[in-house]
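dumping this here so i dont lose it
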């Protein structure tokens, strides 16, 4: 009898062990692995020829195939998984690909480099709260070498500038060189930034980085020969895009926390100089809590009509509402250059107080705070800017009445609440040639 039981117990143990291993494997896939599907076409259409789990999206296949059964050229892949971000901060997402690649977080595109190209690197910095996020990476190879790489890290731990160098004056097409520069402190004279790769004249550079600032006022100084543009916190603060000998420009800004910085530069002829620095001008005597205008990104939905109707042509994450599109599209080949509309929404935590909300648009704008319409200018504004302001009292407990102080103010006292997480909705429509869309509060 015992001889019969032992084989049964052994078989039962194997079944239980297999079940445990399967469960553990599935949990690991859900937590750390990517479910990838490979297609023998460049459009991810039809049935995949290979479907499996992989522990990374970081490959350089060269002239080879990703897996048996997948063609060496003209294939595509889609990876889907979840990533865990262990802290609330600005995160830098990086792709390197040959050919096209695009990345979605929460189904919103954050990187779109969907075109034939040699190996190139694309980065984007986005503030995200700590937690789990669904991520999708899509890739195609059109021939030749095949590279697909995706990574992320807190931007505040990246202490170098990401420099993209172009052999033209307009930062167009793909960079001929991408590298990390410790500082922007260059005097190349009549030489090249990278002999044999970057031209000695008629080149341009874009540097990007996120820097952690203690609360205070800072003076930014840019010294260049020739042109320079500087964005701090996604705002253009220095714009001297002209041919010139060595010239210095400054801008004073109040900053706090993780701040994205972007500097664009071009050299036309002769000497080439590009330098950027900053120094603290003042600092607050007591700690302050800044209003988190960049702490939470905007969920943006773009429509190819001016009434926000139907399904959006594009959804994405916008760090701020501060755009000057001119006569261009917010996203070429996706959103129309004219007669489009946008809806931005997010939740912001406000300390109790009175805030003035401002919009500057060419086109129409509406703003809701906590479900209440506070700015309503949903009409064309041709060839001039119309700033609209609304002062809103946000208070714990009972809200007091607000007095009308200026003719162009709309005074609103919101009901008292012990939750200061307010839902903000901003809608915009374009109706003319030169467009601006901005929203802020203080």
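and the seq i came up w/
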């Amino acid at each position: 009898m015992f001889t019969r039981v032992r084989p049964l117990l052994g078989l039962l143990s194997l079944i239980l062990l297999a079940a445990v291993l399967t469960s553990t494997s599935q949990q690991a896939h859900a937590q750390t692995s990517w479910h990838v599907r490979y297609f023998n076409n460049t459009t991810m259409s039809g049935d995949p020829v290979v479907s499996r789990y992989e522990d990374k999206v970081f490959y350089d296949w060269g002239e080879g195939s990703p897996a048996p059964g997948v063609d060496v050229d003209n294939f595509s892949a889609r990876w889907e998984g979840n990533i865990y971000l262990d802290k609330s901060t600005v995160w830098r997402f990086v792709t390197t690909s040959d050919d096209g690649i695009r990345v979605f977080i929460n189904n919103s595109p954050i990187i779109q480099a969907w075109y034939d190209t040699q190996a190139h690197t694309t980065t984007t910095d986005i503030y995200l709260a700590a937690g789990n996020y669904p991520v999708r990476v899509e890739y195609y190879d059109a021939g030749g070498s095949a590279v697909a790489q995706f990574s992320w890290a807190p931007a505040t731990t990246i202490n170098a500038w990401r420099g993209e160098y172009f052999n033209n004056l307009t930062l167009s097409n793909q960079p001929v060189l991408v590298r990390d520069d410790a500082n922007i402190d260059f005097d190349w004279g009549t030489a090249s930034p990278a002999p044999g790769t970057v031209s000695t004249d008629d080149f341009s550079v874009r540097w990007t980085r996120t820097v952690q600032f203690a609360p205070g006022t800072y003076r930014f100084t840019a010294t260049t020969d020739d042109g320079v543009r500087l964005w701090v916190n996604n705002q253009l603060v220095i714009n001297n895009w002209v041919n010139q000998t060595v010239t210095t420009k400054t801008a004073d800004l109040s900053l706090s926390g993780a701040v994205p910085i972007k500097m664009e530069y071009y050299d036309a002829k002769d000497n080439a100089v590009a330098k950027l620095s900053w120094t603290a001008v003042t600092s607050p005597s007591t700690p302050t809590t800044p209003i988190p205008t960049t702490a939470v990104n905007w969920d943006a939905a773009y429509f190819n009509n001016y009434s926000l109707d139907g399904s959006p042509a594009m959804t994405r994450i916008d760090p701020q509402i501060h755009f000057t599109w001119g006569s261009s599209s917010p996203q070429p080949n996706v959103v129309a250059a004219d007669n489009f509309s946008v809806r931005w929404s997010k939740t912001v935590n406000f300390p109790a107080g009175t805030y003035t909300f401002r919009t500057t648009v060419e086109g129409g704008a509406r703003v809701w705070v906590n479900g209440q319409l506070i700015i309503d200018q949903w009409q064309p504004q041709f060839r001039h800017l119309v700033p609209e302001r609304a002062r809103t009292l946000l208070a714990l407990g009972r809200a007091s009445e607000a007095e009308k102080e200026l003719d162009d103010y709309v005074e609103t006292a919101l009901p008292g609440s012990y939750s200061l997480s307010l839902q903000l909705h901003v809608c915009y429509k374009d109706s003319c040639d030169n467009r601006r869309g901005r929203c802020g509060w203080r």
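The chain has three domains: 34-156, 160-282, 298-441.
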